[in-house]
Structure formats: structure tokens, C-alpha cells
Design brief:
169 residues; alpha/beta; single chain; 7 helices; 43% helix
Length: 169
């Protein structure tokens, strides 16, 4: 599948709007665009607006890790705004959520400060009405397969992703 990208800068961040897939077949295009944009703009952070990003593969993850190593030395970070369930599952399954932070909105990803720590710990099974509604919303989002419903509930209870986003999907 093709990848379309648009970039702009905001709040010391390079925002990369992605449409399609980042995979072995187009990862060099992604890296070239990001590298050129960072060199021109002097941005410390990369925010990937992933609302229309359907898939990332191991080549994309490798490229993101390389970018992370490069920008983290200057206090930079890579953040995902509005990622779809498949992208989130890849990030969390590979245990990269500490390096590739996910946020429910573009605004939250731009406003996030590395000094802000998310709430500690994870949520236990929640039998309340609210907990059941959260589970239903996540199941609707397609993240309940492979037993990951608790993982994704824990993620947004810990403020990595807001509840409104998770319920809306």
C-alpha cells in the first residue's frame, strides 16, 4: 500500500501526518522526509499523526528506533497521536510504549512534557458499569483479540490514551 505524508511544525515538534502504511517498501521515503524536515526545522520532537496509519512493520519500528536514538540525546521524543488499534498493538506488544508514547489526540501529544509521569501501576479487572463500558468500547475498537483487552484498558487508565478516544473508536 502507498504512504502519503504531510508535515508541519508546532510546539517544537515535527508533526508527520501519515496516511496508509509504513513498511519495508516505503520506510526509506518516511525516513528521508523526517530527516530533511528535522534538519530544516530544528525540531526536538516527532509527533506521528497516525489517525489514518493502518499498519507499521518491523522495518518501520527499526527506523523509528533509529530516529529515537538520534533525537533523544537532545531531549527529543517520538509520539503517536490518535493511533489505530493495529498500530497501538504493535507498539505495546513489542514493549516500546516507553519510547513511542501514544496519545488520544494531537493536542495532548503536542502538550506532553517528558517530566510529566503517567499514573503509576495498572488497573485490575473492573467489574463496575464504567469498567464494562470501557471493555465494550475497546472490543468495538478491535483490540480485544489475543487477550489484550486488559493491556489496552491499563494503557488509557494510565493517561497514555484518554477514555474518550478509546470509547469513540
Amino acid at each position: 500500500m502507498n504512504l502519503r505524508m504531510e508535515t508541519h511544525t508546532e510546539n517544537e515538534a515535527l508533526v508527520v501526518r501519515t496516511i496508509g502504511e509504513i513498511s519495508f517498501f516505503n520506510v526509506t521515503d518516511f525516513i528521508s522526509l523526517v530527516d530533511n524536515s528535522i534538519n530544516v526545522s530544528d525540531c526536538r520532537h516527532i509527533v506521528i499523526d497516525a489517525e489514518e496509519l493502518n499498519f507499521i512493520d518491523s522495518a518501520a519500528i527499526g527506523a523509528l528506533m533509529s530516529l529515537h536514538r538520534r533525537i533523544s540525546g537532545d531531549g527529543g521524543s517520538i509520539r503517536f497521536a490518535r493511533p489505530r488499534a493495529a498500530v497501538m498493538q504493535t507498539i505495546y506488544t513489542l514493549k516500546l510504549s516507553g519510547l513511542l508514547r501514544c496519545f488520544g489526540s494531537l493536542e495532548k501529544s503536542l502538550d506532553y512534557s517528558e517530566s510529566e509521569e503517567p499514573a503509576a501501576g495498572g488497573a485490575e479487572h473492573d467489574d463496575t458499569q464504567e469498567g464494562q463500558e470501557e471493555s465494550a468500547g475497546l472490543e468495538h475498537a478491535g483490540v480485544a483479540h489475543n487477550g489484550n483487552i486488559k493491556l489496552f484498558r491499563d494503557i488509557y487508565k494510565n493517561k497514555d490514551i484518554d477514555q474518550d478516544w478509546a470509547k469513540a473508536k
